[in-house]
Design brief:
Blueprint lengths: L1 H6 L3 H14 L4 H13 L3 H14 L4 H13 L3 H14 L4 H13 L3 H14 L4 H13 L3 H14 L4 H13 L3 H14 L4 H13 L3 H14 L4 H13 L3 H14 L4 H13 L3 H14 L4 H13 L3 H11 L6 H4 L9 E3 L11 E3 L30 E4 L14 H9 L6 E4 L10 H16 L4 H13 L3 H14 L4 H18 L10 H19 L4 H13 L3 H14 L4 H13 L3 H13 L5 H27 L1
Parallel strand pairs: 1-2
Antiparallel strand pairs: 3-4
Length: 641
Amino acid sequence: MGRNALYFDDYVTAIKLFNQVIDAKPYMAQAYYLRAYAKFTLEDFRGAEADCDRSVALNPYIVDVYQLRGLCRIHNGAYEGAIDDYSRVLQELPEEQSALYNRTLCKMQVKDFEGAESDVNTLLAKWRNLYKAYLVKAQILMERKDTTRAMACVDTLLTLNPKEADAWSFKGRYALAHDDYLLADSCLTRSLELNPKNADDFLGRAQARYAMSRYNKALSDYDKVIELIPNHFIAHYNRGLLRAQVGDNNRAIDDFDFVIAEEPDNILAIYNRALLREETGDFKGAESDYTRIIKEYPNFLFGYYARARCRRMLGNTRGAAADESRVGRAELDLRYGNARRTPVKKLRKRSDHSLENYRQLVEEDADTSRVYVNELLGKVQNRTVERELLPMYSLAFATGDGKTYAETAFLPQVEKLNKERGDMPRLIFTATERRTARTDDEKTDDALNDIGKRLEKGTDNDLLLVRSVVLRDMYNYPAALADVEQVLRADTANSLAYWQKAALLMDMAETASHRTDGQKNEAPAMQLELALRDAERALALAPENAYALYNRGCILARMGRTQAAIDDFTRAIAADGRLPEAYYNRAVLYMRTGDYKKAIPDLSRAGELGLYRAYNLLKQASADADKDKAESNKEKESTDR
């Protein structure tokens, strides 16, 4: 019963049930482990670690317990202990990727950069396409002051996967730190195209644009940061400075009001607000701010001079005379008091409160232990899921681990291909991310050469299809498309080739849509139309095939034809009621149109069928449905009155 509760994410009930087991049989190590799992998911990391300790004491041979305890210790800041746990896991399972990755991050946290680099090199030797590892290695090299190799590592990653947003972000921040503002702007823009909700990248790009005097664009970026994180301190502070610089004084004061509410003792913010209040005629407010500054810095002569000016405007001649007498015999730097507001390119740390830096933009204090990619592999918490559609079903190489529900997708043509070509890598038909089997570029090149030699002896449609999968993994879409088209010229009834061609055209449309030169691009629309044509040809060969209906639905959704896509997903479900991706994608479309009541049962069914990411969307849909209901009731009550 406890395991069943875990399956349905009912962690509180699961803990209650495991408590009963432990009360009855306190020697059962598995019960402590499962309760630790539930506690971890509820973010009770210390309680989870304690349960893992008990489980290990009772049975030190359950490898999963060490995996979980390693995660608990990371969250509790016990990195040395986490390293020990992951080392134990790797003794039993040398090929456990997540354990090696997490141990690398832990070694970085304890400043064992030599050990961390050794681990990440092992990762890349075994799993060349583990893209996150390249960024980790780059960060390690940065910590070791080897910036040349670090940036070469990032460039290698971008060559392998030009859509890796974190790599563009890394490169952009490096350029920003080295005052290459044009490159920083370009790289961070590319990162934001791929991940438009990265507030840190908007913040970095704003700083680059400010340095290039592109003030309106910098303000737009600060607005975006605050839209994403309304209470972002630095964005408010820097936007206030920039608004003051372009003469938008009243709204600049609003930003400094926020900053001072967050940090009442922030003297630089108070000083900036004092200057702005004086300029806008709020002499009483300016006098109050200058008084606060003088209390903190009693020898700040310009503060007395400015307060005297405000007091005279308010008619307080006695107070003004007292301030003037305070500075009468001192050398007053009038140019500092009346200095023109020139752009300052340098940034100051948030902890630097030197008054001479009052016009400088702010950045966060350096965190030497920061990891650019700090998401742990093997994490069992619920993750926030974006309302994005799952991809089409297409050919991919099998992982061989048997852990994903996607590998159970059955298509007779694929099984026939695997059976007849047992000498080639096993293929699956999946809607999950591909590129899972490529572990070594040399092996990939060898496979291409081997297939090429076989094809020299004569055309072989099966080999051409396999080669198209390899080429697609290498992002060589034109060559992959040429192979599939050759198959279709020889066999116009090959539905598998039509599906693969449609998927390739979708990839090409997605790539073409990311132009950065500002020019209008008609390619995506044309490629989507071609993909739809091929999907319909595949459907004509098998009118009630669930995968064919699902794939056409994905293309229609990408084209913006929402209702037609929903209809196709509905037909796919009617053909195969155990196709979780169809439920999931239909739910996403329902959510996009605001029909949360219809989305909820679809997401529940998708999760039940093994697509566990649906549970996070289910929570979102339920919350939105409750919100709509509350607003509807409010409107009804207002109408009744």
